[in-house]
Amino acid sequence: MAISDSPEILGSTATVTSSSHSDSDLNLLSIRRRTSTTAAARAPDRDDSGNGEAVDDRDRVESANLMSNVAENANEMPNSSDTRFTYRPRVPAHRRIKESPLSSGAIFKQQSHAGLFNLCIVVLVAVNSRLIIENLMKYGWLIRSGFWFSSRSLSDWPLFMCCLTLPIFPLAAFVVEKLVQRNYISEPVVVFLHAIISTTAVLYPVIVNLRCDSAFLSGVALMLFACIVWLKLVSYAHTNNDMRALAKSAEKGDVDPSYDVSFKSLAYFMVAPTLCYQQSYPRTPAVRKSWVVRQFIKLIVFTGLMGFIIEQYINPIVQNSQHPLKGNLLYAIERVLKLSVPNLYVWLCMFYCFFHLWLNILAELLRFGDREFYKDWWNAKTVEEYWRMWNMPVHKWMVRHIYFPCLRNGIPKGVAIVIAFLVSAVFHELCIAVPCHMFKLWAFIGIMFQVPLVLITNYLQDKFRSSMVGNMIFWFIFSILGQPMCVLLYYHDLMNRKGKAD
Asked: Which GO terms describe its molecular function (predicted)?
């Protein structure tokens, strides 16, 4: 069977067939003309020879050759109007061993699932639209007029002033590096001064937060800013210390690194979307202004969507709940499951707004080239893979300034991982407990609980050898069980604290 005989090819070659139809007709016409000319030239021979049987045999042979040529041309150049020679019953319809598209062995092999993805999007939009309409009909418009700005926001000015004074600490770190570069102070003094500067950069916002009865979001923003400054200061001090060590070894003939303390490099590092200091970064050639405007519009839209979900869904669910560790178990499970979906939506919007929109906007304005702020963490098969892929700036900082320094100092790999999670747990607790003005250690326990979860999910992944099983376990632990439980715990503890204070 020729390739053109297949009906699949006919659909895709309709244009070529129609364009070449005239050439096929000319070829057939020329064959007929040659045949008729040959027959006419041989007509006198039939009359002279009288051998009619021989002439008839020759005519039959030429006629058969003509029909075979016609059939070959028809098979080579099929068209939509002539179906005499396409997909004949004698042609086999089954020629290869094939699997069904949804078979387990073929579902992920060279197949596009764009249609199923579009179906999921349509169903998701339809279902959530119905839930939004039902919620508005049942509860009305719950978003307060002071959601974005209220009179209480004016009382947060001490936190705002604290944010404005935090750049003093990077400036102090720069002065220390300049002094050690000129050999005015020794190496132990440098380490001591950097420890004082970085520790003060965190304690100062903590004290301001605890002394001011500010809004929760304002306190979280200040603590996040302070933690970022602390991470950058540690990276700045650690990197310069390493470059000084290499410079001293270079004087002995090993290497020749370029060590320079530049205020311009430090200023760019403090505003760049990275936590790892280096003297230069890959840069893009220009700023795409129209692209930045589009990303800002998306940022405003998704931030408003987060506020709508929080005010319209999460707050009523949490306010109508009981403490998950003190009430009815079945009721607590029902509240956690009901809270899991809107909480997941808010978390995904937060991730998209910060890690994709805001960091890319900042990188575009600063022409920062390395924009791998996250990887495909949604495909994570274990908890370990999730923590390695979802927040790349923090992951690179942990690997560079905690994990490998621990290994180089002889600390076992497992202990180094525990130390990295311990640092992460401390800062998670600071960012949540300090704005809430209470230390229940729920965030700290939740992060440290990731260590046994890493071992469990790695074991399950090795046991089942299936990426789908590991990914489903990750999503269940992450979105169904973990985050909604933390939201309920902190909300009820905060309400209990306010009740006692009143």
From this structure: diacylglycerol O-acyltransferase activity
Measured distance CA(483)–CA(463) in Å, rounded = 27
Tell me the HSE value of 432 on the side-chain side, using a 13 A CA sphere: 22
Is 492 noted as a catalytic residue in this protein?
A: no
With 50 as the cut, is the pLDDT of residue 472 above it?
yes
The encoded tokens of residue 309 equal: 């979900």
How far is the C-alpha of 340 from the C-alpha of 348, rounded, in Å?
Answer: 12
- DSSP-derived secondary structure for 377-390: GGG-SSHHHHHHHS
Residue 105's pLDDT is: 65
DSSP lists the bridge partners of residue 368 as 283
For the CA atoms of 62, 63, 68, 69, the dihedral, rounded to the nearest 10 degrees, stands at 70
H or E segment at 366? helix 359-366
What does pTM read for this prediction?
Answer: 0.72
Which amino acid type is present at position 301?
V
- What are the beta bridge partners of residue 283? 368
Based on DSSP, count helices (H) and strands (E) in the chain, helices before strands: 21, 0
CA-wise closest residue to 207 among 474, 484, 463, 430: 430
User: Which of the residues 194, 395, 401, 428 is marked catalytic?
Assistant: 428
Whole-number pLDDT of residue 275: 93
Q: Is the CB of residue 31 less than 8 Å from the CB of residue 69?
A: yes
335 contacts 317 by C-beta, under 8 angstroms? yes
Condensed to tens digits (0 to 9), the pLDDT of residues 353-387 reads 999 999 999 999 999 989 999 998 888 888 888 88
Q: Contact, 369 vs 281, CB < 8 A?
A: yes
